[in-house]
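A reminder from the course coordinator: this example appears on the midterm review sheet, so study it carefully.

Given structure:
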């Protein structure tokens, strides 16, 4: 949604319930020229996960939802996690209401609950809980989902030009823990128009922090810098075992 960068949500109001096929989303994402030649830079792209989703379906002959259930959700015991596909009507049961800010005094927040699940698909169409998120990373690192060789490949991080590295679907980030400032934690952040998440974990699975919130842009915070500082302090306290400042 281009308008988000300009503080205007008119195209979100008009299009957030529109259904798309994965090929359509990939087409939209690839209309502009490449940012750089492949292999020479880094830029996070949900469209890349759409391509991976189609590749999985093409190679297996099954839907992406079927493969996620068989290969990840069931083996890891993620009973409260499910894939939003064309057969589902959205989020089940009680959940935080997602909002983005509008910049309008009479209606400062816009409820995006009815966002079409087709707009997320392989790029973020998973609903889960904090507990299941932690259990997923346990299963990722204890041999349930990946062999030692596969985990090593997934954590062979590349530089991103920022304060984190990236592997195969995993962030690698240092939090400057007093006992080991160079320790790298794995995890990910994510967002979907008001569903916000930060989840990081020690490689040995002993320390885990997953936190979610429900305002999808920093215009909705009284003090964005204070929010960022508080979030980081929360992550550091849980991962490093220290008292937050």
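Designed residues:
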């Amino acid at each position: 949604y281009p308008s988000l960068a300009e503080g205007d949500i008119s195209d979100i109001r008009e299009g957030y319930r529109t259904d798309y096929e994965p090929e359509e989303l990939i087409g939209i994402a690839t209309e502009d020229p490449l940012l750089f030649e492949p292999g020479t830079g880094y830029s996070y792209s949900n469209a890349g996960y759409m391509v991976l989703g189609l590749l999985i379906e093409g190679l297996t002959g099954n839907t992406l939802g079927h493969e996620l259930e068989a290969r990840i959700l069931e083996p890891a015991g993620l009973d409260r996690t499910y894939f939003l596909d064309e057969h589902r009507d959205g989020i089940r049961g009680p959940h935080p209401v997602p909002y983005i800010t509008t910049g309008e005094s009479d209606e400062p927040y816009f409820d995006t609950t009815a966002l079409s699940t087709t707009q997320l698909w392989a790029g973020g169409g998973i609903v889960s809980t904090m507990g299941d998120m932690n259990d997923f990373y346990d299963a990722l690192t204890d041999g349930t989902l990946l062999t030692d060789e596969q985990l090593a490949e997934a954590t062979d991080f590349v530089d991103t030009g920022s304060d984190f590295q990236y592997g195969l679907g995993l962030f690698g980030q240092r939090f400057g823990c007093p006992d080991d400032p160079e320790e790298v934690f794995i995890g990910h952040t994510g967002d979907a128009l008001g569903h916000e998440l930060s989840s990081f974990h020690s490689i040995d699975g002993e320390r885990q922090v997953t936190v979610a919130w429900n305002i999808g842009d920093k215009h909705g915070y009284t003090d964005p810098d204070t929010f960022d500082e508080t979030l980081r302090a929360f992550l550091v306290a849980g991962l490093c075992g220290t008292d937050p400042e």
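The helical segments are 10-15, 22-29, 46-60, 64-73, 130-141, 148-154, 224-240. The domain at 2-240 is CATH 3.40.710.10 (Beta-lactamase).
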